[in-house]
């Protein structure tokens, strides 16, 4: 795989990973409204969002 393809793969993977927590924020997947569950779900979603952002930034830097 060439460097451009690896960078593009990282960008696409990062965007997919970013879309997962956005879906969790917008859609109420499990129908639970407990404050504890909301805190855990929000923390995990933010962590996944940041990991996706890191993948996107690494992918863009590899494309240069």
N/C terminus separation: 16 Å
Number of domains: 1
Radius of gyration: 15 Å
Q: How much helix, percentage-wise, in residues?
A: over 70%
Question: Mind explaining what this structure looks like?
Answer:
Helix content is 83%, strand content 0%. The protein starts with a helix and ends with a helix. α1 runs antiparallel to α2. The chain has one domain (3-63). It has 64 residues and is mostly helical. The chain is elongated and about 45 Å long. The mean pLDDT is 77.
Task: Explain the layout of strands and helices.
Elements: H1 3-26, H2 35-63
Helix pairs in contact: 1-2
TL;DR?
The chain has helices at residues 3-26, 35-63. It has 64 residues and is mostly helical.
């Amino acid at each position: 795989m060439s460097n451009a393809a690896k960078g593009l793969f990282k960008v696409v993977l990062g965007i997919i990973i970013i879309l997962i927590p956005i879906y969790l924020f917008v859609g109420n997947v499990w129908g639970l409204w407990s404050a504890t569950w909301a805190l855990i779900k929000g923390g995990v979603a933010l962590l996944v969002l940041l990991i996706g952002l890191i993948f996107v930034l690494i992918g863009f830097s590899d494309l240069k």
